[in-house]
Amino acid sequence: MAIPKFKKEYIIDALKYIDENGVPFHNQSTKYELVTEDGKRYPPKYVVAVADHLANGTDISTEGFNAVEAKSYLEGQDFTIETKQQEKFELSVTAESVESTDERFTMDNLSLGDNYKPLDVYFKKATGEVVKRSYSKGERRNSNQTMPRIAFQVFEKKISAMPVEKKESFPICKYNPRSDMICGIYPSVDEFKKHRNTIEYLTYGYDNGRQFVIYCWNVFSTIIFVQECLKRFGKPGDQFILTYREKDEKETEAAETEAAAQEELVQQFKGYRNPFSSMLIASKNLIFRGAPGTGKSYLAKEIAADIISNGYFDDYTLLTDEQKKQVEFVQFHPSYDYSDFVEGLRPKVNDDGTMGFELQDGIFKKFVARARKNYEDSQKSKETIEKEISMQETMTDFFSNIELGVDTFKTINGNEFIVTSVDDHHINISIPRNATVNKLTLNLDDIRKMLESGQKFDKIKDITTFFGKTFATQAYSYDFAIYKAIKAKKGSASKVKAKQEELKKYIFIIDEINRGEISKIFGELFFAIDPGYRGRAGEISTQYSNLHSDPDDKFYIPDNVYIIGTMNDIDRSVDSFDFAMRRRFRFVELRADERLEMLASLENEDLEAEAIRRMSALNKEIAAVEDLNENYQIGASYFLKLKTLDFDQLWTDYLQPLLQEYIQGMYDEEGIMNRFAKAYGYQKPAEGDVNETTQDQG
Fold first, then answer.
1. Could you tell me which residues come within 8 angstroms of residue 116 by beta carbon, excluding any fewer than 6 positions away?
2. Is residue 492 pLDDT above 60, yes or no?
3. Which of 43, 86, 485, 516 could form a disulfide with 29 if both were Cys (CB 3.0 to 4.6 A apart)?
4. Are 496 and 318 in contact (CB under 8 A)?
5. Is 592 helix (H, G, I), strand (E, B) or coil?
6. 314 vs 589: CA distance, rounded Å
């Protein structure tokens, strides 16, 4: 909820009210303070709540907005806001001891780690050499996993060389003297969950896709693990140093709320972390629209991870390689077309060196094929799956034991042919004595279906009847010959054991969806993607169906496919989003002041607060320009560049060029840009100012 509007005089009255009545204990500030000229200090959230009460007659409540929003609002009213100084503590872990500068710390109650937030960690060798953390792309710098991760980093090779039994018995955590020791370093999340079914774990990738998985919850939960690493692998005098501070009230409440929600999620296995995840599940197709930099693409990947992990996490990088096959990402552009997305003819070099064309599936059709196979397999019984696997082994054995391009087969009419190649879907044959058609591609699935049916096929007509056709195709003669050859091969299909396929969810993300010509790209799929026509009810023939091995084969999108699109309404290169497609998507608008939580990755609270202040002030000025609106405001993701840039560089290299594009052709462009710069806090260097380090280089 946005902070209600009221005049500055009500804030001044709120300060007088607080002077007279004081601040309730639960409304005390933990992060920021409003400081007056006479040195008095007030909690910003409570000030705003009281001002709202005085101005609008509401109950005094700090619900609905956070401390950062209150800080930014009051600063916008020219009040001074300072960050409260918080005491930092240092924890030193050696092989022999664990000591903290916080006198309250005790190894007998490690659950107290819930109350603290990690700030930094490093490994200090006995020689004095310091080893800092190495971070993977997108990894949070400060989390409860900070300390065990550097332990894995330092002792990675020695841990990986341990026998399995020693890894599984490796001490990790003992919360108090009465609790059992939690043990085990496991090679995968699945293996970890066999021993401890919980969301409280970390994964550390170390070599060729391999990983370590251990229990981890709060900042103290892996102290024993780290100390055990030092005992086994370290040298005398080696130590890990962790700095941390107390969580503020908001952080504590958020942690408690999240822990409760996640525990319920694990137990019920039916909830998601992100509220948009449930929205996507319900609507099938979702489009995020909004201002530049609102994190639409990042949000789409968060949702995908959330859904595919069944609510365990929303970090896309934590998905396994197998899970990532359930997600596909594509970016539309003006030249993107149907052949890229669905299917089309692509050039190929023939065996004789000439150029030709072949039909190839586009990225969306390939993705749907994976989802469709999972969907159809999940509907099969365990017995059916075992039968199919057994038959697949029989076919694989048959084709692996013939000599391609050499072994000869005969149709029922005596026509000789040879198999030149076999892939997952097709059998390519050569018919040397056929002057009209000397090459043909057979559908491997047709032969598989014939074998799996258990029916007896004695003539071509039996195949025609089996597939429900009125007339036999040329291919059926050759299908029949291969079918008979497989059946004639001695031996019986092996018995296999299989488990029933789990139904999975597949998420297709289309970034900048409105930059492509939607009708041209989707073609007839506008019908199939309709949430009301998923599955067989939405079967369609694609534009190139006459070139398929089975022209009667229909395309459909199964129920386990979900589509997320992102779009920027102000992109001047975009095509209009026609109404036929528009009504098949649910649209969600993201405002520039949403998704501020992204800025937490700056890992500097003062920098985060300053970024929010500048962004808010700039966006307020943008909205004040007559020909602009909220769609032109700047989102938080732009300010993530502050990880490598300063505020001035962010302005000159990114924001200024974008804003100049916005106002091009408007009256008084220079005046508008000056107001933008002033609101943002950018001051143009005075004439003659130079970087002295660039001078006298010769």
1. 89, 218, 219, 220, 244, 245, 246, 247
2. no
3. 43
4. no
5. coil
6. 20
Mapped onto helix, strand or coil, the DSSP state of residue 244 is strand
Give the C-alpha separation, 638 to 655, whole Å: 8
Helix extents (H) in 234-362? 249-268, 275-283, 296-308, 321-324, 338-341
Tokens 């995020």 found at: 288
Beta strands in 54-159, from DSSP E residues, in sequence order: 80-83, 88-93, 98-100, 116-124, 130-132
User: Residues 177-199: pLDDT tens digits?
Assistant: 888 899 999 999 888 888 887 77
pLDDT in tens, 565-602: 998 866 644 445 666 777 888 888 888 877 788 888 88
Give Cα 272 distance to the centre of its chain.
Answer: 13
pLDDT-derived band at 696 (thresholds 50, 70, 90) equals very low
Q: At what angle do helices 44-56 and 8-21 cross, to 10 degrees?
A: 110
**Phi and psi dihedrals of 469, rounded to 5?**
-100, 155
Instruction: Work out whether the CA dihedral 669, 674, 680, 685 comes out positive or negative.
Output: positive
Closest by CA position to 220, among listed 86, 90, 101, 112:
112
* 452-455: long-range contacts, CB 8 A cutoff, minimum separation 24: 452/387, 452/388, 452/391
Q: In which element (H, E) is residue 420 found? A: strand 416-422
Q: What is the Cα–Cα distance from 683 to 678, expressed in whole angstroms?
A: 7
Cα angle for residues 450, 462, 395 (degrees, 5° grid) = 20
Residue 141 has pLDDT above 80, yes or no: no
- Confirm if 629 and 592 have CB atoms less than 8 A apart: no
DSSP of 608-668: HHHHHHHHHHHHHHHHHSTT--GGGSPPGGGGGGGGTS-HHHHIIIIIHHHHHHHHTTSTT
Average pLDDT (93-115) is 90
Mean pLDDT of the chain: 85
Instruction: List Cα–Cα distances, 425 to 17, 190, 327, 452, in angstroms.
Output: 77, 32, 23, 16
Q: Which of 46-55, 363-372, 380-389 has the lowest mean pLDDT?
A: 380-389
Q: In the prediction, which pLDDT does 366 show?
A: 95
Tokens of 256: 């408690």
As a whole number of angstroms, the distance between CA 210 and CA 187 comes to 7
For 80, phi then psi, to 5°, come to: -90, 125
In contact, 659 and 673? CB cutoff 8 Å: yes
Condensed to tens digits (0 to 9), the pLDDT of residues 262-287 reads 444 344 334 577 878 988 988 899 99
Cβ partners under 8 Å of residue 689, min gap 6: none
Rounded Cα distance, 425 and 544, in Å: 17
- Write down the pLDDT at residue 263: 46
Please state, as a whole number, how many other Cβ atoms lie within 10 Å of the Cβ of residue 655.
23
- Residues 258 and 273 sit within 8 Å (Cβ to Cβ): no
Is the model's pTM score more than 0.85? no
> Among candidates 539, 584, 579, 580, which has minimal Cα distance to 557?
539
Three-state secondary structure call for residue 171: strand
